Model the fold of this input.
Amino acid sequence: STGALFLLVGFLYERRHTRMLDDFGGIWKFMPVYAAIALIAFMSSAGLPGLNGFVGEFAILLGTTRTNVTFAVLGTLGIILAAWYLLWAFAKIFKGPSNSPANADLKDLTLREVVIMVPLVVMFIVIGLFPNLFLSKINPSVDALLNQVNFSDSAKRWLINAAFDRQEFDGWRFFQIALRREPMKELSDGNAFALSCVGMSF
Done:
């Protein structure tokens, strides 16, 4: 959906040569096909059930909840804020009165642009309704990785807590110990940024 949004911005910029939201308004009536595709892309990014964005967000939150409920709650708040600003931006661009006479001259999507966007929209729906078509192919690799790097609950808690420390971090040593399942006490405290990146990988 992010790629679709970038394409939609590019289509609109080619026609108006501005990215300022205040320059638009009410363009649904001038570009109905563009607006309909944009609505689907916006809803996908907002995580509407039945579209691909919901599958990704649900999987991330479900996995995070099993590790740290606090982070899951913060992630949920982020999803809510993202949905709010997406709906706000959509209303500002497509609904209400037109803020510029130039908007009346906007042309709807060409056939070439529709051909570009339709496969993306189809994939939004296919992934949203039938996620196992893709998850069934991804899961074996994920399971193999988890079996190879199988941290205990105490190790996972250490990883999260250490992410807030700001001392020197030996990343290669971390993976050597992790892959051999050696006690996590052998690790030194980690640099916040590096260790956060490692933590998010699991």
